[in-house]
Design brief:
It is globular, with a radius of gyration of 31 Å. It folds into two domains: 30 residues; 246 residues, Aminopeptidase (3-Layer(aba) Sandwich), CATH 3.40.630. The strands form two sheets. The protein has an eight-stranded mixed beta sheet with strand order 1-2-4-3-7-10-8-9, sandwiched between helices. Strands 5-6 form a two-stranded antiparallel ribbon. The chain is built from seven helices and ten strands. Helix 5 crosses helix 7. Strand 5 and strand 6 form a beta hairpin.
């Protein structure tokens, strides 16, 4: 009887062992299904957005267009993003190779918009003219288009001729607000042109503005480190005050209601004010840095302000 019990127990053990050998461990281990194809890591959790700009479906880049040509025949290009009715225009490089960092910060904005088209709300169009004075830029860096900081001479004195176009005119003295042919820049005399809008570069932006009627214009200059409102003897427009404070608060630049460090005649943003277009000057702190982090914050604040 005892031997029979032992035989029965042995049979049971053999039967159970045989079952697990052929059935495999999944019969007793509840393993979760794989998250995806073998070798493909799980999709990372997206980071929390810190931008104040509403994230929408990507706005198409309308593309690159020429709005005119320089004295030497170089194209003045505008880059458009979004197809909305509210246009905000950013301009760099009016002083060409002298303020070359204002062109680079505009090119950084183009790179940013190419990489982040979703920051443009559906009601907006953002336009960028990176180099309004291509002849002046070419004098210093050897090209009228995209360049790098390493292309710029280290001696700042050699960049001064790049402030002027191929007619040796200071383009920021060629606009219709207190225009004078004999103009000044700091403590020196400069050429304001034979007459108002005598230069093809200033004429190109005049035609563009009159045709497109942007809701706001931001122009980069250097170097003072501040955001300056525009006016032409008619007071600062209420929307210009908002524009000034919005960019300044976000970027950390100090806001100014006017530029009064020295007399200016024929200034572009003051001409824009004369056309009742809100416009501000953003003066970079020096002639070598784009201060992109500060300017990116200001740009995003402006886009958020005009978003619906």
């Amino acid at each position: 009887m005892k031997n029979l019990s032992i035989i029965i127990i042995a049979i049971i053990i053999v039967a159970v062992g045989t079952y697990f050998i052929f059935r495999g461990p999944s019969a007793v281990v509840n393993t979760p299904p794989p998250a995806g194809p073998v070798g493909v890591p799980p999709e990372p959790v997206p980071p929390v957005a810190t931008s104040s700009v509403p994230q929408t479906s990507p706005a198409p880049a309308v593309g690159e267009v020429s709005i005119g040509n320089s004295v030497d025949g170089q194209p003045i290009n505008a880059y458009h993003y979004g197809i909305g009715d509210t246009e905000v225009l950013f301009i760099g490089g009016i002083h060409g190779g002298y303020s070359w960092n204002t062109a680079l910060v505009a090119y950084q904005l183009i790179d940013y918009l190419n990489g982040n088209p979703g920051v443009i709300p559906s009601n907006m169009r953002v336009s960028v003219i990176p180099v309004l004075n291509p002849d002046g830029l070419k004098k210093v860096v050897g090209t009228a288009g995209l360049f790098s900081a390493s292309d710029v001479p280290t001696d700042e004195a050699t960049t001064v001729p790049g402030r002027f176009n191929a007619h040796n005119v200071d383009l920021n003295r060629n606009f219709d607000c207190d225009w004078q042919s004999d103009a000044t820049w700091q403590n020196r005399k400069v050429n304001g042109g034979a007459n108002v809008f005598s230069e093809p570069e200033s004429q190109a932006i005049k035609t563009y503005v009159e045709k497109n009627k942007p809701a706001a214009v931001v122009v980069w200059y250097s170097a003072a480190g501040g955001v300056f409102a525009s006016s032409c003897h008619n007071g600062v427009l209420p929307e210009t005050k908002v524009l000034t404070d919005t960019f300044a608060t976000a970027s950390g630049y100090k806001p100014y209601q006017e530029f009064n460090f020295y007399e200016i005649t024929g200034d572009m943003i003051n001409w824009l004010a004369k056309q009742n277009i809100p416009a501000i000057s953003v003066l970079l702190t020096n002639h070598t840095s784009t201060e992109w982090i500060k300017n990116k914050a200001g740009i995003e604040a402006i886009i958020a302000h005009y978003a619906k």
